[in-house]
């Protein structure tokens, strides 16, 4: 065991699977305390196969799918902010930030990961979670922000590093060249993937040892990806896909200095 704690804050069950599943698995395997906080239960999304869930039980089914994935990554069971899927921009920002502040003070992470301002593909829920978490990291360190009458603890906690989970622009170009979709359809409208160029990416985690964990985590999310999908039997070429073997982050805030070159560890300078 280590005394290192990683807390990731995302919007929907399955948001963790593609871009952070390997990273979560790797740090859990190293003995770090790894937490995943998810704002919603994903109940507004499509059901991949009709017999997997009904719209009535979808929140429950997606919670169980996320619990399944967390078990495979070897991390703590998921924490939920209990907000409605698809409506995060309408949530009172102060209330949502307060929930994240309380979790930061309870779990005491040195490293926090969330979406960047691009929300991967401009998803309005992702962008809301990005804002809440970025503000909460600052407020958790300020004992005057949330006095004890609205919080279980007034004890301040200073996060050391805040990272944004991103897709490199070059990877999106490569997907387009291979003829793969580079947008997500939402409400009948395409939302294109957006990401910073490699030159702006501060941190690349090689998760090639954890691709199997990641694929098993993806498979837990059956109502999202279906029972049969390109990851279901994980042929060798899927396992070697560079999209799966490396996960990319931008160091957005640091209280322990800045890397001179590309980092390969979220806990660089903290060990
Ligand atoms: Zn999402």
Give a brief description.
The protein is an alpha/beta fold and 271 residues long. It is 36% helix and 17% strand.
Rg measurement, Å: 18 Å
Mean pLDDT: 93
* CATH architecture title: 3-Layer(aba) Sandwich
Beta-sheet strand percentage? 15-25%
Q: What's the CATH H-level homologous superfamily? A: LmbE-like
Explain the overall architecture.
Strand 6 and strand 7 (189-192) form a beta hairpin. The strands form 2 sheets. A 7-stranded mixed sheet has the order 3-2-1-4-5-9-8, sandwiched between helices. Strands 6-7 form a two-stranded antiparallel ribbon. The protein is globular. The model has no long low-confidence stretch (mean pLDDT 93). 36% of the residues lie in helices and 17% in strands. The chain has 271 residues and is of the alpha/beta class. The protein has a single domain, classed as LmbE-like (Rossmann fold), CATH 3.40.50.10320. Residues 11-12, 15, 123, 126 line the site of zinc ion (ZN). The site of zinc ion has 5 residues, from loops.
């Amino acid at each position: 065991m280590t005394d290192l704690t990683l807390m990731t804050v995302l919007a929907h069950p399955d948001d963790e699977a593609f871009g952070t599943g390997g990273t979560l698995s790797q740090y859990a395997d190293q003995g770090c305390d790894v937490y995943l906080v998810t704002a919603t239960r994903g109940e507004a999304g499509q059901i991949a196969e009709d017999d997997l869930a009904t719209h009535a039980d979808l929140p429950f089914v997606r919670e169980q799918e996320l619990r399944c994935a967390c078990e495979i990554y070897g991390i703590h069971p998921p924490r939920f902010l209990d907000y409605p899927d698809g409506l995060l921009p309408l949530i009172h920002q102060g209330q949502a930030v307060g929930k994240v502040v309380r979790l930061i003070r309870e779990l005491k992470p040195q490293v926090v990961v969330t979406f960047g301002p691009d929300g991967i593909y401009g998803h309005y829920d992702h962008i809301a979670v990005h804002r809440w978490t970025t503000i909460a990291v600052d407020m958790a360190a300020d004992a005057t922000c949330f006095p004890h009458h609205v919080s279980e603890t007034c004890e301040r906690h200073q996060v050391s590093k805040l990272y944004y989970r991103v897709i490199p622009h070059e990877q999106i170009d490569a997907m387009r060249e291979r003829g793969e979709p580079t947008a997500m359809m939402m409400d009948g409208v395409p939302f294109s993937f957006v990401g910073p160029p490699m030159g702006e990416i501060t941190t690349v985690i090689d998760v090639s040892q954890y691709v199997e964990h990641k694929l098993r985590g993806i498979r837990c999310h059956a109502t999202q990806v279906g029972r049969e999908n390109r990851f279901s039997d994980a042929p060798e070429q899927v396992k070697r896909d560079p999209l799966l073997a490396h996960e990319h982050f931008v160091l957005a805030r640091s209280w322990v200095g800045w890397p001179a070159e590309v980092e390969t560890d979220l806990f660089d300078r903290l060990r």
